Each structure stands twice: as C-alpha cells, then as structure tokens.
Amino acid sequence: QVQLVESGGGLVQAGGSLRLSCAASETIFNLNPMGWYRQAPGKQRELVATLTRFGNTNVADYANDVKGRVTISRENAKNVVYLDINGLRLEDTAVYYCTGSVGRANYWGQGTQVTVSS
After folding, report:
1. Which pLDDT tens digit goes with each residue over 45-66?
2. Rounded Cα gap, residues 101 and 44, in angstroms
3. Which residues lie below 8 Å from residue 53, measured CB to CB, with a gap of 6+?
4. Any residues with CB less than 8 A from the CB of 43 and at least 6 apart, and which?
5. Which of 1, 17, 49, 100 is the most exposed place for a label (fewest CB within 10 A)?
6. Is the pLDDT of residue 74 over 90?
C-alpha cells in the first residue's frame, strides 16, 4: 500500500506563489504516472497536472486553466513530487490532492488546502 502525503498548502494572497509537495512512502520510480488534482468547494475534483515517465524522459501535461502558471516535477532521490503554482488566483482555492499509479492501482493522498485571498 503506497502512502502519499501532501504538504505546502496555506493561505496566500492573489498573485503569490506556492510549492506543494507530495511525499511517497516508497520509491516514486514505481509510481507512473503521478499527478495533482484539486477540488474546490461545491465542485468536482479536477485534474491540474500529470507527470508521466517514458524511460528516462518525463512528460508533463497541464489543465488549460493552469498552463503557464504551474509546473509539476519529481525528485526521485527524495521520493517527492512537487507542484509549483505562480500567479495564484482566487479560483485556485481548493484542496489539492496528489495521486500516483502502480499498474492499475491508483493511490491518493489526503490533500492539502490552498486558499487564495484578495
């Protein structure tokens, strides 16, 4: 059973930046793809970004409304996946979840709250 623990959320003013971290209980080399989702109050969970490893190459994919403001990356040596968010907007307020897959099994963290204030 893989455990994923998110951190780095908090209260940030609009226009600010955050780095979210997702620490895995085992090597993230086995987790492919990995990604971040978010769920705003009253809304469905939605994809923010994914990172898929093809051999030695990592391919990132982003939701349209965060492209250019968000970067997903992984640090295999620390078993951590990051989500850097710049230019935070009020509509970025949500609980952010980390996810990773091993074969057909999908694992989720408990989420970290990001609140953007005006």
Report:
1. 999 999 999 988 999 999 999 9
2. 20
3. 29, 32, 33, 59
4. 94
5. 1
6. yes
